[in-house]
């Protein structure tokens, strides 16, 4: 089932012409995609249901989808300041933030360094340190054979969306390289920073994900007021597409925290 956005627009923030869409009504819920993904590629199967209870705000972050890249390093800190500026642009004081992969890291960064702007976070397939990475991600010899990796169709979808939506479709290969540097520079958050997260947190993890289930357990232990949901028989690219499993988990989380 597809759904048409209530509004679409751009916010000029931090040098970006940042694209966003809104759906539904209710408490604000920001959706943050993973690296090389778009609102539609990451969340198409979730938005129709989420929009029944929330004002869903889908964002395409720096260099992704309809948002052009700029001469600025892509970091969780920079992307988080963009989301804060978008909330200011929309007149929203606090919002729940659901992010997948890179977007999950941005959600964590918001909860750590912009706690007054988030009512809850749902980091999906995210890690809080390099120690959480699946061993196959660290071994290039396994990239073509590992069961955790995106499929050829996934990569075709990434490239197709980029060429169709990007203001600079010819920059796909260069942009892919710039994103790979983001992981190599990732420092994570300290135990003290994680212990200071004050909002409700739902950690979601595929059992065959880019990050390990053991690391998700570490996150659960280090982040107060957190809950963990492990989605069975699920890879990194499948987590947000397991809507029949994920949506009830999200519904239960939001029901447990009225107003979020």
Keywords:
Rossmann fold, 23% strand, alpha/beta, 9 helices, globular
Commentary on this structure:
The chain has an 8-stranded mixed sheet with strand order 1-2-4-3-5-6-7-8, sandwiched between helices. It starts with 6 loop residues before the first strand and ends with a helix. It has helices at residues 39-43, 47-50, 76-90, 102-113, 152-165, 172-184, 191-195, 213-222, 243-256, and strands at 7-13, 16-23, 27-32, 54-60, 95-100, 118-124, 201-208, 226-235. The model has no long low-confidence stretch (mean pLDDT 95). Helix 3 packs across helix 4. Helix content is 35%, strand content 23%. The chain is of the alpha/beta class. The longest helix is centred in the N-terminal third of the chain and has 15 residues, at 76-90. It has one domain (7-250): Rossmann fold (3-Layer(aba) Sandwich). It is globular. The protein has 9 helices and 8 strands.
Outline:
The protein has 260 residues and is an alpha/beta fold. The protein has helices spanning 39-43, 47-50, 76-90, 102-113, 152-165, 172-184, 191-195, 213-222, 243-256, and strands at 7-13, 16-23, 27-32, 54-60, 95-100, 118-124, 201-208, 226-235.
Per CATH, what is the topology? Rossmann fold
User: How would you sum up the major sheet?
Assistant: 8 strands, mixed
Number of domains: 1
Radius of gyration: 17 Å
Arithmetic mean of pLDDT:
95
CATH top level label: Alpha Beta
What oligomeric state do the depicted chains represent? single chain
CATH architecture: 3-Layer(aba) Sandwich
- Taken as a percent bin, the fraction of beta residues is 15-25%
Structural class: alpha/beta
- Give the N-terminus to C-terminus distance in angstroms: 25 Å
Helix and strand pattern: EEEHHEHEHEHHHEHEH
Instruction: State the helix count.
Output: 9
Based on Cα principal axes, name the global outline: globular
Query: What is the strand tally?
Result: 8
Strand order of the largest sheet: 1-2-4-3-5-6-7-8
Helix content: 25-40%
CATH superfamily caption: Alpha/Beta hydrolase fold, catalytic domain
Stretches with pLDDT under 50, minimum 5 residues: none
